[in-house]
Design brief:
By secondary structure, the chain is α+β, with helices and mostly antiparallel strands. It contains ten helices and 15 strands.
Length: 275
Amino acid sequence: MLTTVHLTPRIGTEIRLDRCALLNGSKAGEIRKLLEERGVLVFRQLHLTDAEQLALTSTLGELADQNGAKMMKVTLDKSEMGPDKAYLAEYLKGAFYWHIDKSVADVPSLASLLTARRLSQTGGQTEFANTYAAWEDLPDAEKHALANLKIVHTIEASQRYVNPEPGYAELKGWQERYKPKTHPLVWTHRSGRKSLILGSTTARVDSMNIEEGNLLLCRLREWATQPQFVYRHEWTPGDLVIWDNTGTMHRVLPYPLDSGRLMHRTVLEGEEPIA
């Protein structure tokens, strides 16, 4: 039997479910429905193996590739990443700022599943903001004003939070590895619901001057990350958290860079383009 406990009124639900039923996919439909409704699902101290996490992810949708692997280590410890992927640790420092994964793609990831393997002694909580609810609570006049705006997203914008003065080679790498992508500010989903597409990759508002556009993006980020829209997860080893990447932003709170914090992540392939 699947039971739920809502963790805040607008976002975040803990699911309690027999391990066998979770892994065999018999409740996958209910879990996906709850994920869209609640944005973040928490399974406490599951201690899934990598094989079990991969199997669970496959019951919920199509497993996405992450830089050549289905399972990715999320850590700032370059020795854990391997020499060919050590550069990813630098990109992961951008996770300290509000963002939506793969916002520079035509089709962002549907969802991510993150298991806590090793935690920092201080900090490292993850916050999630419900951008469906943030849109729904905007005044009608503002919804009308925002409805047709386009936003340019770049990896350069997000990485400048981490390194505001990159060297030439690093800047060229950001620009060449990930090309700019222009998306609607308001994603109208196939379900009919709408969510805001915000976060650190927002470089500019397409139809506004830089100053005016930056003020708008800052104001909307502050709106969308008000306490009533946010769930903060306090990790314990073995926790599994799933979040709907199409209707939430997330960020990790600061922790010592040498703490060895290690999470294992699987990702569900996106199923609809931003439109």
